[in-house]
Design a protein that fits this description.
The protein is an alpha/beta fold and 599 residues long. The chain contains 18 helices and 14 strands. The chain has a six-stranded mixed β-sheet, with helices on both faces. The protein has a four-stranded mixed β-sheet with strand order 3-7-4-5, covered by helices on one side. 31% of the residues are buried.
């Protein structure tokens, strides 16, 4: 039993440390003085709110005594006093609400910007997604969008609400326990021929009542923490798949994959519903008990105080004061009972944010195992490239590309051609060795990213459109065989949905022709184009890099692309049983045939 209590205390301490770690940075940030001042103001307003409650308790005694004594003068005077107490109470509550909401807004704003900065820094967003699929990292955070957008709102809201509610409960308990102790008198009983008296009996009854209620509530509601955690994850997974269906709507429609996607959506939504049903059942059990607990607390002080009232030991005003004070003490001691479901959501949200924060901190502490420097040419030394699961693709690769070269990289599908490019770019975390790449290099992925918004912004991405004139933008579109878009620079649209796959590839090529990089790394950038368009655009790309004194490295399966390159690198599968000669890698890179790549 003692070990269980110790474990739970340790768990509670861990939760508090996690909350402090998430909350403290804002109150130490550049906004710390404003944040601390607002927090102090909220604490002060909570103290004033409790003070008003104490005034209200005293008013109960005078008001109900006036009713019992049929004293009209005091009655009407107390009605006027009630007006002032009510006005003060309303003013405090409104101001407390406003300042609390304002602090939550500023806190969430700062926290969201901080997490966005860290998530987008050093390609963390990319590496965390890769980690989810690595066999050696099964605990990578899922759905970072949901954690940044929803969990932060819940965390700041619940942290403020629950912490100020707990503070209010503690101060209320300290303020009213003395009142209740004084008013409740002592409780006498006989046992074994002796008479015993318990001073402040109502206080002890309130404590016993709430302790029992808290213990029962904890055992009933404890599963809510895990259920709420899973509910947030299932909701995020369902929303994520809905977004994917929208993004790939054309491909799904062409493949007639509606039934499959509908089934996948039903599967994810089924998880949402099943978990939510568990949540409902658990909440039903909790609400059943807490409702009984709350209703019994209404009549309990009257039952206990009634004998003293009917015996004439206390007046009606004192009875109402006792009832009011008991209610305040009971509410304070029952804070955990009344807020257990919110605490469960808050705990689950804290765990999700903490795991996300841990993942970003771990990534920040890690250094890329591959060294990458700037140089006038591409050169690799002892390059080792692997898949996220640790399977080696290449080992000990020593490559060189000089200005004026044009290299075509080929090999079987899945052999790691794109992965090698990612290693050149310095974004692949599962690579070791040394890579030197010119600064003026531009990498083009298989599937270009086309942001929504104005066409001019999509064309110049990620550079500001203001860096280029309209004539330059139109010329780039015309050169990329997109003359119909040249007059639509200021049109706003979802271009990734509006443009075909070939048009998106030509838009990406227009970016190259606009920015004129000296070095170009192109990964299947014309796979959706016809042969004639491919030939025209490759000639223009080759001319662009040659004019800038650089080189071009391409990945392509079509033999005709070889006409625009003077070297070919081929990823050759290692025969079974001979992979040990290359450190266990699946492929070796054949660069011995340095000759023009014929069609």
């Amino acid at each position: 039993m003692s070990s269980t209590v110790t474990a739970r205390a340790a768990t509670f301490a861990q939760v508090l440390r996690r909350v402090f770690r998430l909350a403290a940075p804002y109150f130490r940030s550049e906004e710390k003085w404003r944040a601390r001042a607002m927090l102090l103001g909220i604490v002060t307003l909570n103290l004033l709110y409790v003070y008003v409650a104490v005034l209200g308790n005293q008013w109960y005694g005078r008001f109900y005594d006036a009713l019992q004594n049929k004293d009209a003068a005091i009655f009407w005077r107390e009605v006027g006093v009630f007006g002032w107490i009510a006005f003060f109470n309303i003013a405090v509550q409104v101001l407390k609400f406003y300042v609390t909401q304002l602090l939550q807004l500023r806190w969430r704003s700062w926290m969201t910007r901080d997490y966005l900065t860290r998530w987008m820094a050093e390609r963390t967003f990319y590496h965390l997604e890769l980690a989810r699929y690595a066999n050696n990292d099964g605990h990578a955070p899922d759905n970072p969008d949901q954690r940044i957008q929803e969990d932060m709102q819940l965390f700041t809201d619940y942290t403020m609400t629950l912490s100020m509610g707990l503070l209010n409960a503690v101060v209320t308990l300290a303020s009213f326990v003395g009142i209740l102790w004084t008013l409740s008198g002592s409780f006498s009983f006989s046992m074994g021929g002796s008479t015993y008296q318990i001073a402040g009996a109502m206080v002890w009854l309130a404590v016993a009542y709430c302790v029992v209620g808290t213990v029962i509530t904890h055992f009933i509601g404890r599963p809510l923490i895990g259920i709420n955690f899973r509910q947030q994850r299932y909701e995020a997974d369902f929303r994520h798949h809905l977004v994917r269906v929208r993004e790939y709507s054309e491909a799904i429609a062409l493949d007639k994959g509606e039934k499959v996607e509908h089934g996948q959506l039903d599967l994810r939504f089924g998880s949402v519903l099943r978990n939510y049903l568990q949540l409902i059942k658990q909440q039903k059990n909790l609400i059943t008990f807490t409702s009984f607990f709350g209703q019994a607390a209404v009549i309990f002080p009257f039952i206990v105080s009634a004998p003293r009232f009917f015996s004439g030991a206390i007046h009606l005003g004192q009875l109402m004061q006792i009832t009011s004070a008991f209610g305040k003490v009971q509410d304070s001691l029952s804070w955990f009972v009344d807020n257990y479901d919110r605490v469960a959501v808050w705990r689950a949200t804290t765990d999700r944010l903490t795991s996300f924060d841990d993942a970003m901190r771990a990534h920040a502490r890690q250094s890329m195992p591959m060294a990458r420097d700037a140089a006038p040419e591409l050169r690799t030394d002892d390059l080792w490239v692997a898949l996220p699961n640790g399977t080696a693709l290449l080992d000990g690769a020593a490559l060189a590309v000089k200005p004026g070269d044009s290299v075509l990289l080929q090999g079987p599908s899945g052999s790691g051609k794109s992965t090698l490019f990612r290693s050149f770019a310095g974004i692949w975390p599962f690579a070791r060795g040394h890579v030197k790449v010119p600064d003026d290099a531009m990498f083009m992925p298989q599937r270009p990213y086309v942001p929504d918004g104005k066409l001019r912004d999509a064309l110049t991405y990620p550079n500001p459109a203001a860096n280029f004139s309209d004539d330059q933008l139109r010329q780039a579109l015309n050169d990329a065989l997109l003359p119909d878009l040249a007059s639509r620079l200021d049109d706003s649209d979802a271009w990734s949905q509006k443009l075909s796959g070939g048009e998106q590839q030509r838009l990406a090529i227009a970016r190259v022709l606009l920015k004129k990089p000296a070095w170009l790394f192109a990964d299947e950038i014309t796979s959706a184009l016809d042969a004639q368009a491919e030939g025209v655009l490759y000639k223009r790309l080759a001319a662009t890099v040659q004019a800038a004194g650089g080189a071009m490295v391409s990945i392509a399966h079509r033999a005709a692309v070889g006409d625009f390159h003077n070297q070919r690198w081929t990823l050759v599968p290692q025969p079974e049983g001979t992979q040990g000669t290359t450190g266990g890698a699946r492929y070796r890179l054949d660069t011995s045939a340095v000759q023009p790549a014929a069609a």
